[in-house]
């Protein structure tokens, strides 16, 4: 295999980042250093309050003295934290302690796609990773974020092969032009950089698609398409030399797949796929035309997807409805939402008012690695309703408050009339405060924007305590 060209980085110069091992940043105890890049060092850390490991990205000391780099670092945290998608690394927190600026992220223990590139992959394995990455990019692009450094080292893998995009440290929000935006021009990795980015031109989501095409080429052949002795020469090859598709054909890649790679890596942005969604559709069709199976559940049928504001869903797939087993004529009906038993003569639950003819199960289209649909369960821990538990389907935006008209009524005096909203988006459950008087807190942190919930999270609606968990039918 041809190694990826690696050029000297400044990350370790004059920065004794390893001295942080054993120390604490905020509530996170640094365990070991697990990576370094041009913008930051990355550590594995332990969070005692939630009994979990996280990844902490620390800004080098020489960057911390430069306001522009600090702004870029904080922009990464704020912009990516708003993205809720199973193929994007989740941002938990960010802050500053004793002059050290850091971001706390989801810890992924399966290495990177770069680690897997010891030899060429099968077409199916490579396509699997590329579609997952494209799903994550599609979410970012829809939220106005261009990654600008798509490469195998920024694609983290869980042990089951689930891919998550990381390191949006040089991403920019496509709103206006600022000094911060201009400083980012041209930053990236030459082996995967689009012609327009390499020559300092403005970039958009099609630049990410180009870079992902080069990653696809690397996965299929075991090498990047353009190599040279220095970054400038590599950039010139991206601009001037045609993609060596003969290398793809020589390894037995079907022509339909070669066409997709070539279109992804077209020199002119207008000649590429214009969206990640269009790329995914073309690649899935090319796999089918090549008589290659597509095993991932989200390509068989994907969920109704709400955006981060809980707006009207975009349906991108469907699954046939499932049939329910026949019950004896006199058997009571169990309410899906609160699991109370009801006479069969009732149409709505006598306890929570939910419709007993529960047809929403057919909309639970997203399934996780277990092959089952993850639903939400809220278990109330305080007040008169303590011990009661409520479940929620994926297609319903749930309003939580203390008055009639809310989907879940919590009758505590500190709960606002319309307090919070819960919904499902891109494989994750999202919670947002609705401007409540006493606040919504997740693990003692007050919500200022929508957040992704994790199994076991403790939620406070004012003074009322609720535990969130993932459940299955």
Automatic annotation (TrEMBL):
Keywords: ATP-binding, Kinase, Nucleotide-binding, Serine/threonine-protein kinase, Transferase
Enzyme class: transferase
Enzyme Commission number(s): 2.7.11.1
GO MF terms, alphabetically ordered: ATP binding; protein serine/threonine kinase activity
Catalytic activity: L-seryl-[protein] + ATP = O-phospho-L-seryl-[protein] + ADP + H(+); L-threonyl-[protein] + ATP = O-phospho-L-threonyl-[protein] + ADP + H(+)
InterPro entries: FHA_dom, Kinase-like_dom_sf, Prot_kinase_dom, Protein_kinase_ATP_BS, Ser/Thr_kinase_AS, SMAD_FHA_dom_sf
Domain FHA: 398-447
Domain annotation Protein kinase: ranges: 28-284
Residues the entry annotates as binding ATP: 57
PROSITE patterns: FHA_DOMAIN (PS50006), PROTEIN_KINASE_ATP (PS00107), PROTEIN_KINASE_DOM (PS50011), PROTEIN_KINASE_ST (PS00108)
Listed name of the protein: non-specific serine/threonine protein kinase
Organismal lineage: Bacteria, Bacillati, Chloroflexota, Ktedonobacteria, Ktedonobacterales
